[in-house]
Amino acid sequence: MGDHGRNVAVMALLVFAIGGYASAEAHQDRICLADPPVDVPTRQVIPINDHLIAFYDGRNTLRLSPEPNWVDDAANKLGVATYAIHHGDEAIVFDTFPTIDQAQWQRSTLEGMGITHFTVVTSHWHNDHIAGNEVYQDSEIVMTARGLQLMTDLKADLEAGTTLFGPPAINPVILPTQTFEGSMVLHLGGIGGIGGIRVELRQINIHSPDETVIVLPADRLLLSGDTTEDTETFMVEYADLKIHAENLRKMKRWTDFDRILPNHGDPERIAAGGYDKSFITATADYIESMVAGARKRDFLGAPLEDFAGKALRRCDVRLFEPYREVHEFNKAGVFSVWGVK
Ligand SMILES: [Zn+2]
Predict the structure, then answer these.
(1) Structural domain of residue 156, as residue ranges?
(2) pLDDT band at residue 29 using 50, 70 and 90 as cut-offs
(3) How far is ligand 1, taken at its centre, from the CA of residue 143, in Å?
């Protein structure tokens, strides 16, 4: 994790603007585009149904700092969604945002709805999903056992801002209070598991080895964490990419959901109730074509359209321009593991 080479790659991505997309321009007219970044605050609370709300921030040009940093460049610029499943005075919060300020906004919004009892479920250890945990220090925080292990191993680096994501630091890091392996079921409301809302947590190695997704079977919804991302997945665990693609195809075969709500996606799609399962295919196809493409000539010069073109033309995902930088970062990482040197 603390690999210096990766640190350099991340910072290189953040520091240098990416240019020169002649062949991308040629494809541009045939692909689906998301709304471009705006210059104003974008925080919004999006009701999905009577017991699920989304919180959305980002996809704008506002920054915390002019210096390269993960909050602006690897999270808010791309857009961040978090979710709360609520019933009476209780809520399950799925991830706590990249900053304390955003997490406070999330919590005070829920408190304004009369919610006094919170359980946080953390999708995975990456900075943008755990930084707001400090706001929920008085609450149960649930995560996979693998996530606790990773967060414990990386605690000093997270608190110093020296993980592969770099600064800013997250200090103090608030660790989960409860862990699980494989799967876990939570209930909101109801008595003895009867009635109320059934919330199924499932660990699956996609994007990060400690990743948790949530299935709400009664709503036929999947809260997908970072297993799917629109425009394309942000790769970190390059050696596991074939496992990720395989597990995505397995997840797609789960029969208890039809719609998908991600932590990084298009706010319009989230507000419209989420993505369908073609979103999972789009992610798996991108991963597989990147791994295969790493052995071809000119891989490092190839635009996003060469790997996500089918999904972009079908509007399964829509190009949000800042995701071109993520693609450059992904190619560098994929090449380091799967490329021909
Ligand atoms: Zn993320």
Answers:
(1) 3-19+30-338
(2) low
(3) 15
Domain assignment present for 24: no
DSSP 245-283: HHHHHHHHT-SS-SEEE-SSS-HHHHHTT-B-THHHHHH
Q: Is 270 left (phi over 0), alpha (psi -120 to 50) or beta?
A: alpha
Q: What angle do CA 263, 266, 270 make, to 5 degrees?
A: 70
40-83 pLDDT tens trace: 999 999 999 999 999 999 999 999 999 999 999 999 999 999 99
Distance 75 CA to ligand 1 centre (A): 7
- Cα separation, 324 vs 72, whole angstroms: 15
Ligand 1 centre to CA of 129 (Å) is: 6
Beta strands in the chain (DSSP E): 44-49, 52-57, 80-87, 90-94, 117-121, 140-144, 178-180, 183-188, 197-203, 212-216, 221-223, 259-261
Distance 127 CA to ligand 1 centre (A): 8
> For residue 320, what pLDDT band results from cuts at 50, 70 and 90?
very high
Name the burial class of residue 26, with classes exposed (0-12), middle (13-18) and buried (19+) by CB atoms within 10 angstroms of its CB: exposed
Q: Is residue 25 part of a domain?
A: no
| CA–centroid distance, residue 232 to ligand 1 (Å) | 12
112 C-alpha vs ligand 1 centroid, how far in Å? 26
pTM of the shown model: 0.91
Say if 134 falls within a structural domain.
Answer: yes
State the chain's mean pLDDT as an integer: 92
Q: What's the gap in Å between 43 CA and the centre of ligand 1? A: 17
CATH number of the domain where residue 61 is located = 3.60.15.10
HSE-up (13 A, CA, CB side) for residue 309? 15
285 Cα–ligand 1 center, Å: 20
**Residue 251 Cα, ligand 1 centroid: separation in angstroms?**
19
Domain total of the chain: 1
3 state SS of 206: strand
Measure the CA–CA gap between 23 and 31, rounded to whole angstroms: 13
